[in-house]
Structures are given as C-alpha cells and as structure tokens.
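Record 1 of the preview.
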Amino acid sequence: MEKITGKNNDLIKNVKKLLSSSKQRREQGLFVLEGARLVFDVLNSLYKVKYFLITDTALKKFRLSADEMINVSESTYIISDELAQKLSETKTPQGVFAVCYIKSADDFIVNKKGRLIALDNLQDPGNIGTIARTAEALGIDGIIVGGGCDIYNPKVLRASMGSMLRINVIEVGNLVDELSELKSKGYTVYGTSPDSNAVPVNKAEFSYSSVCVIGNEANGMSDEVKNSCNVLVTIPMLGRAESLNAAAAASITMWEMLR
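->
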C-alpha cells in the first residue's frame, strides 16, 4: 500500500475532479464513493474498484471491511487526514473513498417482464437518489434514467444510501426510443400527469410488464414522452397543494404499481 500525503499528488487531484465533474466521470469512465457505508456497500454490488483510499484512523476503525476492500481493489492508498478533508464533500469525513468503474449500458439488461420506473429529465440529485432507495425497498425491477442529473453525482449516491449500487439502473440517450423498445417487448407504458382525464393511480390496473414515467420537477413529462405513454395516471390530492415533489410522487406510484 502506497502512502500519499501531498495535496498536489496527481491521483488526489484526479479524485477531486471526479467528485466535482460529470464530464470527467464520463470521459474517464470512473466515479467516486465517499464514506464507510457507501464504500463498503460496493462489496455487495457488481461494480469493480480501481482505487481504494483510506486514512490510518479509518483503517483501524473499519479493519475487517477495509481488508475486504483491499482484496478487491486494483490499488490501495493510505492518505492523511488532511487529504481526506480536502477530498471530502461532507462536513465530517470518515476518511474512506473508492474510485469505481462506471458500468456500460450493456451491463444492465432489462428483463422481458417486470415493473420499472422511468425518469424523464429529473434534475435534483436528491430526488433521483431517494427514488432509487424507495424502488429498491419496494422491489421495483429497474430504473431507466432519460436525461437530467448524472446518476454518479455524489449527491445522488449519498441520497440513495447505496441503492444505486445494487438496483438495476440504465441511462438512455433517448427515452422515447427506449419506451418504444419496451412496448415492442410487451410492456405497457404509464405516465404520471396532472391531466384531468388521467386515471387515478389507485384505480389503475398495472400490468406485470409495466413501466411508469415520472416527469421533470418543474415541467413534468416532455410532450414526446407523454405521447409515448399508453396510459396516463394521476395522484388524487384532496389538499390545497398544487403538486407533489417528484420523489414523493414516484414513491406513491411505485407502491400502487406493486399492489
């Protein structure tokens, strides 16, 4: 294990870039996990680890899990507490980081049957992470992400509490094309909408092979995506609020899909 203490070390500079830049993550095919829970969660995922970085303090505290990480990582580095502070995007860093390989779309195979959720240009990383966490908890078979926030954004990963590492997630360049492909495989496409003619979500009959689209936080589904849906569903609201947060709407919808 190599020890790194200098803040100008090229590897440290690159990890910082990966944490802050979606462009760098895409170009290098790498993303960063921070914190003991997320980093050690990767041990139970299909992601491969390029670098494992840990402080002496954290190594002593998390010895057993750290040893497992050392065994599966291509390289391990001991870093100083000062460097951990420099890298960290949290107020109280734990001194544990992992640089992992981004999986290609080919690594994720959508089953011919199952219940899926699709996200149309969601921008809030907290919403995406929360939706992933809820989807895994409820038993949704996969998430399709069409545009919007980078799913490897550290805020997405933290909000998901590790679910993004375990649930089947694919990013697609064109959500309309992906929905068309799913329809050709026998899926019914549902879309959430405040449309007065939409079916109340608690009255909808979700087929086993179904995908439901959650629209952008401000604008809902794009017209193209909306026109791709077989059925529009809406969440009845008796109160005075005009709309629900995207993550809340997704949670209610996924619950109804699995009833």
